[in-house]
């Protein structure tokens, strides 16, 4: 069955046109994460600030070394170019981190599910042990029964003694 060209409910699964440019997505992702990690440091901000200050100072003071006059269009272009590359690299690094976080979250959910099942199993086992122990004789029960038997033996001994005395006399 062929999909209508206007049906936008599902992504197009047709073949993509490849221009012959191949790269390793993981290697590029690791590279982008390294760049994003460097761009997010104080060292980079200091390095970039020093370059901008030197650029402006050399172009404002050193007349013979001037290569970018006052509105500093070349500096603006360089900073815009750096920002235009930095933003997608940072987004790519964030997407990779979000994917790792999602996988870690799924793993944690699986571990939590197993832990909950184990906990419920152990709770049922403890409940069954407690139920089984309700029929077990305790030392208090044994002491009570033993005391009853001792009293019965003493009563029988007393009766026998009285019977012996009455038959002897």
Question: Would you write up a description of this structure?
Answer:
This protein has a domain at 25-134. It has helices at 25-39, 42-61, 73-133, 139-168. 75% of the residues lie in helices and 0% in strands.
Can you summarize this structure?
The chain has 169 residues and is an all-alpha fold.
User: Mean pLDDT, as a whole number?
Assistant: 87
Work out the radius of gyration: 44 Å
The termini sit apart by 120 Å
Q: Sum up the overall morphology in one term.
A: elongated
Low-confidence runs of at least 5 consecutive residues: none
Number of strands: 0
Helix content: over 70%
> Which structural class do you get from the secondary structure elements?
mainly alpha
Q: Characterize the largest beta sheet: strand count, sense, and whether it forms a barrel.
A: none
User: What string gives the helices and strands in order?
Assistant: HHHH
**How many helix segments?**
4
Key features?
mainly alpha, 4 helices, about 0% strand
Note the topology.
Elements: H1 25-39, H2 42-61, H3 73-133, H4 139-168
